[in-house]
From TrEMBL, chain A:
InterPro entries: FTHF_cligase-like_sf (IPR024185), LUD_dom (IPR003741), NagB/RpiA_transferase-like (IPR037171). It comes from Paracoccus acridae. Coiled coil: none annotated. This is LUD domain-containing protein. Residues 110-210 form the LUD domain. Pfam families: LUD_dom (PF02589).
UniProtKB/TrEMBL annotation, chain B:
Transmembrane segments: none annotated. Signal peptide: none annotated. InterPro entries: 4Fe4S_Fe-S-bd (IPR017896), FTHF_cligase-like_sf (IPR024185), Helical_ferredxn (IPR009051), LUD_dom (IPR003741), LutB/LldF (IPR004452), LutB_C (IPR024569), NagB/RpiA_transferase-like (IPR037171). This is Iron-sulfur cluster-binding protein. Residues 68-293 form the LUD domain. Keywords: 4Fe-4S, Electron transport, Iron, Iron-sulfur, Metal-binding, Repeat, Transport. The keyword Transport applies. Residues 404-465 form the Lactate utilization protein B C-terminal domain. The keyword 4Fe-4S applies. PANTHER family: LACTATE UTILIZATION PROTEIN B. Residues 307-375 form the 4Fe-4S ferredoxin-type domain. It holds the Pfam family Fer4_8.
From TrEMBL, chain C:
It comes from the Bacteria. Residues 9-89, 139-222 form the Cysteine-rich domain. Coiled coil: none annotated. This is Fe-S oxidoreductase. Signal peptide: none annotated. Transmembrane segments: none annotated.
Amino acid sequence: MTARDRILSAIRNSLGPRRPDPDAIAAEAAALLADPQVTRPPLAAPDLAEAFALKAMALGTTIDHVPDMAAVPAALRRYLADHGLPGVALQPAAELAALDWDGTAIHTDIAADEAAGLGLARWGIAESGSLVIHSGSDNPILLSFLPLHHILVLRRNDLLPHLEDYAAAMQGRAQPRNAILITGPSGTTDIEGSYVRGAHGPGFLHVLLVGP
Amino acid sequence: MTVPQPSFKERAAAALSDGALKIAIDRTTGTAERKRAAALATFPEFDAARAKGKAIKNHVIAHLDHYLEMFERNATAAGAQVHWATDDAEARAIVTRICLDANAKLVTRSKSMLGEEIGLPHALADAGIERVETDLAEHIIQLAGERPSHIVWPAMHRTREQVANLFRTGHNPPPAAEDPGTMVQSARRELRAKFLAADIGISGANFLVADTGATCTVTNEGNAELTTTPPRIHIVTAGIEKLVPSTAHAFALLRLLVRSATGGEMTQYTTFHHGPRRPGDADGPEEMHIVLVDNGRTRMLADEFREMLRCIRCGACMNHCVVYRQIGGHAYGGTYPGPMGAVLTPVLDGLAPSRDLAQACTMNGRCAEVCPVGIPLPTLLRAWRRRSWRERLEPGSVRAGIGLWAMLARRPALYRLASRIGVRALRLLGRRGWISRLPLAGGWTAYRDMPRPSGRTFMEQYRAEQARREGGR
Amino acid sequence: MVAKPNPRVGLFVTCLVDAIRPGIGFAAIQLLEEAGCRVEVPQGQTCCGQPALNSGDDTDAAHLARQTIAAFEGCDHVVLPSGSCAGTMVHAYPELLAGDPQWAARATAFAAKTHEITSFLVDVMGYRPQGRRLDASATYHDSCAGLRELRIAAQPRALLAEVEGLQMRPLEGNDVCCGFGGTFCVKYPQISEAITTEKAEAIERSGADILLAGDLGCLMNMAGKLHRRGARTRCFHTIEVLAGHADGPAIGEEG
């Protein structure tokens, strides 16, 4: 008997011989997700962008409102200048590459002690102020973790109200190797409960919120 | 040859006499308690969410075989290799074998209580593999050569000054100052190179998502992603109770977990790991191994401890436990401390060496009150007491005392007589209302006085009064 | 729940009140009679069984459960001056006897008619004390079993609010265990002592003249600690104050 067999048969011995069919189990699981509004917090504000911003800023995320994608490079330059950052590692995404980066010191390699990284968020989640990134050929995960300053572009149209809405958006789609919900800069309370930012990941999280 | 281990009482006594430990415990648990209360104050849906969370876990437990197979199928389809381990030794052997086969020299590890439970740190050391703990607290206790004292803040027993001492010798160069900010920066610099040089990264899982085959880690530091992304191999060790039907179910539990653990609303990094690197992916491990560990969980499923399988490891029970807050985590002697540890440790280590844990509880019920998945912890501790009594593990003096008391209590007339005599005897021991030395109950009078019985027993006085009333009629 | 007029109430005195402080039992009789109850004290009672139950000795605990249920069979209600013993009867008795076909239903019925005294006075009898006066400040400790097993929190406070001149002071950590825990405090005296010390410090910080609680076990623990520390806080069971007995000796004072 393999370990797998031993574990599964021990479980079946405890649960008994008469078991519902998979459809019945699936229906029971789905019923557990009914009425999610009863078991989750309401949004911090009726407007998604406002709700998102309230939650994100409460965690130390900074937000810059940008009218359109074309204005992203200039907004980024302002942020780099404000923080005295020499340049930025850019996510190799077609949408970002298509922008006019003249006058911005961009590069693609991510150094071990990278100062700043710019990437695209797939979605934002208003309930929690979270940003969703997916790994892929155009998105190294380390871009979101090695830099001290992490800058994410988020389109207002990509804001989802609640965590469940992200799960629903991914239903039936191909899952990436990594899907990460980023909610504020890296932090730790491991020394006497004192909150310190930039434990291992970015100490700064800045969102360029794009849209009218 | 085994060295005799200090008993629970000895460990507790040592903890009680450690003033720095008490300060450290009060700081962390006090903050945790306040922040949890604040988080719940802004989440009036908590009670409904807790009922839902409990129902989700019960559903998974009732169909555990179904979800394990579903998870295995989907994780395998995503390219992960799924391994099964019935106990800690098998789990250690599987992980060590993967490391040795890969000729790994350096392994990074992201905090996982299951890894502690199965003794992974020692197993890697025995295999000659360098292990680097990357969670800041785990880094601290690795430098100190200790075990975690809390499941959320493993180094909570260490004061800032003690951490500074550890970093001064453990970091090169040592931190420039002793404030937490500077020390965290020093750890960041120290560990960055290790992350990028590791051959294998090992993580735990907060959730195993059955319908996608993903494992989910939640951290605030970002160390899980730095542990699992650069190395060639990612190994996950997870208990079989971590299953959830879907991502949405994981979110429902996550809301409870974070508020209960840290008082936050969401962890900084909530990450789903879905197989190894895809063709064309910019980074990520080439292999992903998932070790599903039983280690007593199917035994719990079979007996009265089934409800404990709902535990999502938030630590709220220990933060709110009067005993934990006096003695800290190490005194419990197992991997898991506090009320949840007092239930789990006898499962993992056997009841005989851990029988004190269920007894050293005032049964005040606060742990069950704060548990985000409604585990009746005092009821489960009582179940251990029942077994301990049945298996005659309780000291003979306790058994004799209870036996004598029960013999009297089962005979009301005799009991009343014994009470009358006992009260008179007690009154002889006291002066001016108080008794300061009590034979057979020195545990009481060592630290507090005992009120002297105020006179004859209630029953004597009541019956005398009844007789008077009847006589006067 | 609405009681029938002049219900027949069986008082379960509790073993600690019987031996250490009978006055609490007489205060209970007085209040119950003021509330319109016919009170009796069945002689078949001894202890609720907690020492056995908490030691894991279910055999003796079940025996005492059956003995107690039988002793109170004829009563409309069973009332106790203790949340801890009441909690045992309400929750543990039905569990202990669930597998006993002759007793399971009787245990459930018994649990349904059993009440801790302050909750019985307020929730069932709608009682409020009249004309009580005590010029003192007091603080209230919520004993754990009553608070968490029986949800007793508002009732004693509502009753105490009727006592003229009594000024209630907040107690930091009022819902945190005092460290008594029944046999816990003699089995693990050092841990108990550390918990009780923090409780005593909080009571002293409250500045109240009087400490009130609804369980004699907790009160003996806290009073004993306060006395050893040399504190001047006087300790009473809540119903002693409600019955107007606070002009007499407090716990540990000689009459």
